[in-house]
Amino acid sequence: MQLPSIAQKHKQYHIMDNMKIDTRIYQYDPRASLCHRGVVILVDKDERVHCLCSSHYYGNFCQYQNQRVTLTIRIGQESLEKFHVIGIVIRLVDHTGLIHSYEQITYIPVINCDAKYNLHLLYQDRPKNMSKNYSIYIDAYNKRNLTYITSWIFPVQFLFMPVNRMSALLTVPKYQECRLLCSDKYLESLRNVNTDSCQCHSDQTNWIQYKCNCSPDSICVGFINNRSICLCSLTKVGPRCYLNSICQMNTCENKGICVPSDPRHSLANFTCVCPEGFSGKICEEKDVQIDMSFSDVEPTGSLLIHFIKVIKLEEMTEDQAPTRITIFKKILFHQKIITFYMALPFHLVFVQLENVYYLIALQHEYTPSIVISTQISSSQHCPHIRELDKVIADYSILHRVKYYHAI
């Protein structure tokens, strides 16, 4: 056993001297360990023991493991449009069309572009019925107008396992794809309730209206335990979307979209999705606008724009370091001026056309919310090091410094 050094001892004593020591004595209650993977609560005056179980366990003492599907998904989109809010509905469905459990996600591409979601979908039967086939149905909707976008289906395999772990990478298409996955038997389970469901036969889509108990400005996306699964608009919340959300009074400025936050993923009450050119918590800040045209340089179909923030050497810390932000921009046919925006501080802006770089903006001191008009010309070309004068470049460092201006 290695004893601490004298310096370590002094450090430990110093910490002890500054700690507030709680002198209260806690007595161990054996009832605290009765619930396996659960929380003990005492009910009524006689202090009857009850266990609060997580969704993974059940039983009087949380002693049984729930059979379930653990799903990890990451979402992306084909479109470069940032002004999107996408509602994702995930359902565990058997081959008869019965929905066993479901989850909903609100995906904001500009904020959640690299987020992972871990979901747990439970079976209704304990244990699950091994004679049935199960699948994960995932539907995507535009939350701004509740229009359908697309669907995915993933069969659940290896049913003998108590917990099935699955992962999926979902790419939301740029345009609507009508392949909503609902079979005849699934539609039969939707009778007597009110929803828009898509029944696909031979690539033909028929929209059939059923009754449901969701609010008028929401849609039904399925039914579970004789209750509707409702997809709410951005201004409504609740199981049936009858409660006004915090976004009922839109506090986002400059035509920003207010999105109620999911408490599972964010502690904020709402998030503002800002239109291009604005940023801030409520879209109150105007971004730097750069209008760029072409002089004697032939534009290509697209370009990369690199924003670089410079930090002085004496100011560099772990939190303060030089940064580079790169954005992609398409160039339309006959487009004369390209406009783009940047919300974060920068000092240098380079445009990359294929493998050629041009310096288009330089700020010694960053100025927010300004408009910069510039153009790409051959005089702004940044040559590669191999294009420099090789004779001078081969000099020693001290010798080369004298000719730096001539390289």
UniProtKB/TrEMBL annotation:
Residues 243-284 form the EGF-like domain. GO terms for cellular component: plasma membrane; protein-containing complex. InterPro entries: EGF, Notch_Cell-Fate_Det. Gene3D superfamilies: Laminin. Transmembrane segments: none annotated. Keywords: Disulfide bond, EGF-like domain, Repeat, Signal. The keyword Repeat applies. Pfam families: EGF (PF00008). Disulfide bonds join C274-C283. One of its GO terms (biological process) is establishment or maintenance of epithelial cell apical/basal polarity. This is EGF-like domain-containing protein.
